[in-house]
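Lab notebook: predicted structure, single chain.

Context: the supervisor wants predicted structures on file for every construct in the current expression panel, including those that have not yet been purified. This is the next one on the list. No modifications to the sequence; it matches the entry in the shared construct table.
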Amino acid sequence: MWGDIYRLKHNSRRVDHPTQLPPQLLYRLIALFTRPDEVVFDCFNGAGTTTLTAHQLGRRYLGIEKSPKYCGIARARHEEIHIGLDPFRKAERELTAKNSPVPRLPKQKYEVPKKTLQLEVKRVAASLGHLPSRAELMQYGKYPIRYYDAYFVSWGEVCAAARTTGMTETRTVPTGVQSVEDFQLPLELLVEAVE
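Prediction complete. Output recorded below exactly as produced.
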């Protein structure tokens, strides 16, 4: 059982697909069960996370996707690899597909970034030895509670970062996995829209 891989929650790391898999899961599975130059096949490729991670890990790949929209997203993301971009990078994207039942808050400018607030909750939780209550965060936290009230949908979302082992600004390639820069093979995208 792996407890260090989480679903993609932050829209800056997602593309417009409601059930996008976390790349860390696919990196691990592909690295465990295949060798470089073997073929990875995903018959429900969606926005391409499986074929993208296979591409980055030096595997050949075949992805099939019924939706022309998602097939197009996957193709565009593979092209990003070819021009040196990380398809899993943080980016501003307009998303229409929801990946959570929680209602979206309106887009707003944050005086204090949400990540900073969540890391503060994590700091307070570590000093208390448990997730802080609203009153404890007001007492021990550095930031006014009004930020938490305005920027988060629920107290569960406020405390989400304190429950994880590693909230950081950058995505890391798992240990033992070659970096994207090491790949020399020009791999073709074999994703086809099926009608």
